[in-house]
Amino acid sequence: MHNQDTIFDTHKKPEIPNKMGIMPEGRLVWTMSIPAILSMLIQAFYNVIDSIFVAKLGEDALTAISLIFPVQMLIIAIGVGTGVGVNSLISRRLGQKDFDGANKAATHGFLLSFVNWFIFAVFGFLFVDDFVMAFSDTPAVIAYGTDYLSIIAIYSLFMCIQFNVEKILQATGNMIFPMICSLIGAFIKIALNPVLLLGLGPFPELGIKGAASATVIGNAVAMTLGLIFLFRFKHEVRIELATFRIHKKTLHDIYAVGVPGIVMQAVASFMIGGLNAILIGYSEVAVAVLGVYFRLQNFIFMPVFGLMQGAMPIFGYNYGARIKSRLIRAYKFTFLFAFCIMISGFTLFQTIPESLISLFNASPEMMNIGVHALRVVSICFLPAAFGITSSTLFQATGHGLMSLCVTLLRQMIIILPLSAVLIHFFGLNSFWYAFPLSEVFAVSAEVYFLRRLYIREIKSL
Question: Global pTM?
């Protein structure tokens, strides 16, 4: 008699070959990336909509969400960084046909979501006030920042689970389900933001708390959909909670890529916090401009990050399967697509910066600072295409430390001291040149690491 459970036997070799090992590389990268790019674009659109409506409360509110933006990025950093480690490990295990190892990676990743949330829940209950007051003594800024950040941090569980579930699904080559989760979650955020912030229709006017609540509700819906897709549909990997035991090697392999990934993402958070600290001594309006820039640049960088979500499992699978030619061709196609996106963004920021800044209810001072800032900072878009693609390759092949070194160089070691020196000696307008200058140093390091990786490992595949 056949055991009904044999249809779920993860040790059997799949009868249908994985598309990541057979589909033409250019088409594979594009088809794998399109869902993630769409969901990332919607998320970027929400970030801008959120800021536009918050700006209606005044520049103090916009300054407040710019000041607390590093903490939001840190939540994303830990969630996404852990997910990247899980994604990379699952992809490599699938490439090696180690399905039991892939299941262990997925299960550990899912449970780590709760650990990540606990850290920020404690912060949300105990330390939000101290954080905001460390950057500003303006009562309105403190009130707005505290109200917004406490809600985001305490209810970050939904976001943490969503990130890990999406990365697990993406590692199997399924990009549609994660796209559906992100798109529906983002649409709900966009729809609820003005309703809850301004009190439209029967809803009460919650102000900045409404903007934060819209974010939480959207994340909760996206998480719920992700859990349904993960547990109710059959995939190459599955979560095995009933038989779960902590497996030290799995944790090590996740965080070998995950910790550098977390630190890489977290470094961006600390970088923005550091830049805010430098700017606040010169102008609170400049802080608002910096926050606006990071939200606008999401329209350019988010599609590239979506492209990388599609490319990472392809890199990891073919590296694990030791198919050198496919790995190299996938890398080249990914870089080409990323460069085209970055050129489009560079052109946009150079030609219509006034229109972009005016979206945020900008005062004349904000317009004056912002137009110059967008034109200068967008110079870094072009070399960033190479940098992001190479970092993704490092992570996918299990070399997260290489990505970490480059990120530290780009976002901490160079840009913070350089920006402080430039603004001190040459004024506020020179501050923005730290972005493209730091990118030059980072790209030089990535060329070195990429060559080293090729000679030591990829060449002999």
Answer: 0.68
